[in-house]
């Protein structure tokens, strides 16, 4: 073998070696498993989907179906990709359409109706398509204003509790929220104000909120990690906004991912500012493995999955018999009367609401 | 061995080779001589197959090479600037051709060493090409071209980049070496000294055509045209009309050898044939520049009429600048050339 | 080698070489088209077809093209605002980048100082880091509590200055590498010759160096303009909702609103703009390749002399420190700043299989493995496709081939979301139902990597003296063999440089990875984004730790590249 060939061979071997090594280290290998086979059921979801391996294995053991999970972008992008591939879907079940986007999914005829087994255990308030069962509710989550406990303790100030409170001069220049046009909590918060002040009153509310110094950033990451004084990132960057639009489950997460675990969550929830998001799953029209998809839908509302879910996705179960983990009961907030808006109404007015919100607050 | 039959190459408007006929016999060393742009490099590229012909044929041992790609012609070509492979050492450069021909490693190494010895670089096999001097690169390039025992070795300005003394020494070495190996050589150069020292036969080219072919002595003694004469460095050329054994020129009457054709012609007097005497002898000239050339002095003479003359004389005979002298011409150094044609 | 080629121009053969000497033959064309088949198929299948399909989906109803929509969309005031802002910020960013980076290019080209290689690698790190990572660090410098705030109470985080400065941060290396690379090879003796002929220092620079440099400056400016014109993450993270570029708008219209007609029009507008930029770029690059007397960079650099030069060096080093080192340093600092004081707690947390009793969002070490795997595959694809394209383009030829040259750069200017969504609707039929395959991610990354490979290898391949190939041919090497024996070894270093760049770029690539559906094998940038997407100190700390690892991997591969940098490569 001459020198050149040797070099070429070495380079090739090195490249392949890296690939193989990485394959061993990662889980890339199992991705190329056989597709469309009867034994695999494919779940398409957004980036936030997460489930314990043990629970997915239990499903395989129970039904014989292996679950392949495809994640594609945030909730909006994931749903839009499904709409684009309508009729020739990438998977069997789609999980992650919430009540703010539900109408778009249903109007596009994405799903095949299926009444999941055990639906009677699911809170009826979450069953927004109870007539046709095109989608099955899986979890709920509340978008709420979170506050930095330390800040309010230091200032000897009571944290706000309601939308009205946020307009008070005491809370001037304290709130940061997200762009309703691009961020899911941002939109949730906007819809919360629509629910609270009506389709005509919300604009007035936002005018006042703007006068009271609300700051708008593009996404949750910037709002929470950069601007909110109660987060780890915020503390490091000397953030100066003790109020942020986030989730009711954020305080328990702060506790979970802290070392050492504190006795009390560093943040609290303004329970009067919450908007409820309900996430659904559905059997995709044109699914290759319909039977598997149905089994998976059944499984998503099973007690086992529902109890596993909170610590993976930091959402609340919809099944009435599912017990919340201690973390949630101990550090989480109870939201008694979250705001809601009917999906059809959202679908109808969303663009227009966001547009007038943008011109009011962003420009 | 090699025959070119009306070989023609055009670059757009320009004709680089214009129906050139040329033959090279076995073991012959042929030098193509010409100024730059005369088509001599194109000639080599045509033979090597690096340049497509627009007309005519190239035959090697009688076989038309039109369909034979470069790498199957079995020729050697030494490039003007060597073109050694910079990423290989001297030995690997020499062995390259052998490797392409599937020669075994041991045999390759043996032959590479042998050739490096032959070109006077024993033990240089492991040396990096960049670390070699110009002369050494030259030798490696030669060894590389010789290694696969080409049936015809072509040299493009083989000694062009070297300094004078090295060039003079190498040219002798080369001729000896080729003679010993019996190599058939086709070389191109613009340096007539190099060509005459190296070649059995010289081919002078001009504007894509062959101006003269002959042994070095023939060409030297009897340049075929004023162009060839001037190219060889002879500038004492003047228009003349021959009648019997004398020619009428602006320099006056000049004796010509017996049997010279009569009528209009160009007359060449070699510098050695320009005799300088007292101002009363022959053509009156003023002495211009004097240039020392080692064993003799070249003197530029300015006649009252006609072009300048160059004379060669011994150091102590050289007249002072500005002096007025008389000039006579030696018939033995006088050559009658055909008249300047339309071209 | 380059020198040799430029110094000896054999009159007749030299003029004919490359244009006339057999390359124009039918056989030569066949070889070239053969070489181009793979790149053309690759770009046709994985770029042109998906992009055309998604644009077509937006502009066609019932099989009829609705070109009227273009006018409709382009007359909307909000869209016009976006267009205006996109162009304005790109122009401003480019000017600012040149202003700040040109002294740097000079210093890197002409001065010798300790740690130069390391610094050159460091300034390139931002270029290959994903914006999600960098946004945080940059905010820390410009925003509240940053040094500007501490010293003068100036906060730029909500102003357009944040965007502009971040663009400088990202593109500093483009100018230093493109302009500095050429500058270091310009023979200083030419300027000296002008001085001897009576030109003042400034006049000599203006009349000799500047004209020689101008094409490189133009090329760099166009690249910076291209990158800032299509800026996405920087504008989103640092600009906030008030600022939107074409790229951000395309993302919003496609991924969020699914308004495909509007997205299609915007894609076409961006396409036209980018195409125009690339056409101009291709012309300046070609002009740049015209004969310049180049010398070994090692000969031209010397230690700074005199107060003026030392001040210049100091100024450049300070700029680099404040603009690049400090933001990157903030990442490292935060990755070490645990609640219990400085330590490696977050790094240790990356290794523990189970944090605080809950399932990991992303097993971080697995993300590193995934990243390396994707990057390796993407690099391999980019090298094969880019290498073949470069080989085909080596031989200068007609406008068709030159157009192909520019075409290869187009993926740099097309939104990842456009390509990603295009994949969805085109690669859905067997045997090309790749929509659920992991290979889509490296394929998309390779689209970005190929231009780098081509741009790195092409100058080197073109600088290979054609007569070396001829020498090999005369010695009995067939064309293929000659390529293998001559070109390949000579471009090996460039190949390694290209590979390293493609690797680093793939490693930091975020857009395609996040828009393309894939089995759950998150890469480093995706893992960082997910960790940042959750509250909790451990998540934040681990995001910083992973970012630091990503940065280190990029820095190390770039430093290795510095060691093997070839004379003519380093276009980026």
Automatic annotation (TrEMBL), chain A:
PROSITE patterns: PROKAR_LIPOPROTEIN. It holds the Pfam family SBP_bac_6. It comes from the Bacteria. Residues 1-22 form the signal peptide. Coiled coil: none annotated. PANTHER family: ABC TRANSPORTER SUBSTRATE-BINDING PROTEIN, THIAMINE-BINDING PERIPLASMIC PROTEIN-RELATED. The keyword Oxidoreductase does not apply. The keyword Signal applies. This is Thiamine transport system substrate-binding protein. It comes from Streptomyces clavifer. Keywords: Signal.
UniProtKB/TrEMBL annotation, chain B:
It holds the Pfam family ABC_tran. Residues 2-232 form the ABC transporter domain. Signal peptide: none annotated. Keywords: ATP-binding, Nucleotide-binding, Transport. InterPro entries: AAA+_ATPase, ABC_SmlMolc_Importer, ABC_transporter-like_ATP-bd, ABC_transporter-like_CS, Mo/tungstate-bd_C_term_dom, P-loop_NTPase, Transp-assoc_OB_typ2. The keyword Nucleotide-binding applies. GO terms for molecular function: ATP binding. This is Thiamine transport system ATP-binding protein.
Automatic annotation (TrEMBL), chain C:
Its main location: membrane. Residues 83-279, 368-561 form the ABC transmembrane type-1 domain. It is found in: Cell inner membrane; Cell membrane. It is a multi-pass membrane protein. Residues 1-23 are annotated as: Disordered. The chain crosses the membrane at residues 33-55, 88-109, 121-141, 161-180, 212-238, 258-280, 311-332, 372-394, 406-427, 439-458, 494-517, 540-561. The keyword Lyase does not apply. Pfam families: BPD_transp_1. Belongs to the binding-protein-dependent transport system permease family. This is Thiamine transport system permease protein. It comes from Streptomyces clavifer.
